[in-house]
From TrEMBL:
Alphabetical list of SMART domains matching this protein: CoA_binding
DNA bind region: 26-65
Similarity annotation: Belongs to the transcriptional regulatory Rex family.
Positions annotated to bind NAD(+): 100-105
Native source species: Streptantibioticus rubrisoli
Protein name, UniProt field: Redox-sensing transcriptional repressor Rex
Region (Disordered): 229-255
Length: 255
């Protein structure tokens, strides 16, 4: 679901391309599901289908990890889970702070999937004094005055920003100055960060806009096919012939 980009070169220092790194979590999710069902081995085709990736791409990705599978047997599921987890840095615990504990921040704090993937929510921080001390997901909300101390004491390197857009840059600057080097930004704004700090942006409305674009295309194709088959309902046919607001384009455009 995460969109956006990191401020890093396309290839990481260990020679794994950024596009491969972006697919590793997809493999890991599929492999974890297999592991939970005690499936011992998996072919590249099966795993590629489960991860929604092309199998040739998967084999290429795994070659960067030095994992080639065994002909006729496939890949060892447990070993690959370990290998990918290690590559993603998930074999260690990552303390995370969430800043902005409104609707979204509270929902993120309550999401159990972070802890099970090695991300421990170390603290919840909000600027509203009325929020301070409230328990959210079992953690007391702390005031932003304590941000630097919390980050330093917990050695937090990952910060999640769920504040309004107008506050996000200032929060980001404070997190970075305190030692955070990776930011997951939910606020609808572009953040400036110094070199060496990774920012990933999550924006569900952008994802919805992309789906809306495809829906519109599909609707256009359906209409075009109906016109070609001569099965266009009468009302739609009239609409397709009617001039649009400019007077020269039909209100409903066939593909
Ligand atoms: N990326 C996405 O897909 C997505 C989805 C929903 C919301 N959002 C964005 O997430 C943000 C939060 O949305 P919400 O619905 O939870 O809003 P909200 O108003 O419920 O919560 C915002 C919280 O941030 C706190 N805050 C304000 N300024 C702060 C600061 N300087 N430091 C720390 N905390 C501060 C407020 O006190 C409040 O508790 C918004 O920017 C919204 O646009 C993004």
């Amino acid at each position: 679901m995460a969109t956006g980009r990191t401020h890093r070169p396309a290839t990481r220092s260990r020679g794994i391309p950024e596009a491969t790194v972006a697919r590793l979590p997809l493999y890991l999710r599929a492999l974890t599901a297999l592991s939970e069902r005690s499936v011992p081995t998996v072919s590249s085709e099966e795993l590629a289908t489960a991860a929604g990736v092309n199998s040739a791409k998967l084999r290429k990705d795994f070659s960067y990890l030095g994992s080639y599978g065994t002909r006729g047997v496939g890949y060892d599921v447990e070993y690959l889970v370990y290998q990918i987890s290690r590559e993603l840095g998930l074999t260690q615990d990552w303390p995370v702070v969430i800043v902005g504990i409104g609707n979204l921040g509270a929902a993120l704090a309550n999401y159990g999937g972070f802890a099970s993937r090695g991300f421990r929510v170390a603290a919840l921080i909000d600027a509203d004094p009325a929020q301070t001390g409230k328990l959210v997901a079992g953690l007391p909300v702390r005031h932003t005055d304590e941000l630097e101390e919390i980050v330093e004491r917990n050695q937090v390197s990952i910060g999640v920003i769920a504040t309004p857009a107008g506050a996000a840059q200032e929060v980001c600057d404070r997190l970075v100055a305190a030692g955070v080097t990776s930011i997951l930004n939910f606020a609808p704004t572009v953040l400036s960060v110094p070199d060496g700090v990774d920012v990933r942006k999550v924006d569900l409305s952008i994802e919805l806009q992309i789906l809306a674009f495809h829906e519109q295309r599909k609707a256009g194709e359906d209409l075009g096919e109906a016109v070609a088959r001569g099965t266009l309902p009468k009302a739609a046919e009239e609409a397709a012939d009617r001039p649009g607001p400019d007077g020269d384009v039909p209100a409903v455009m066939p593909a």
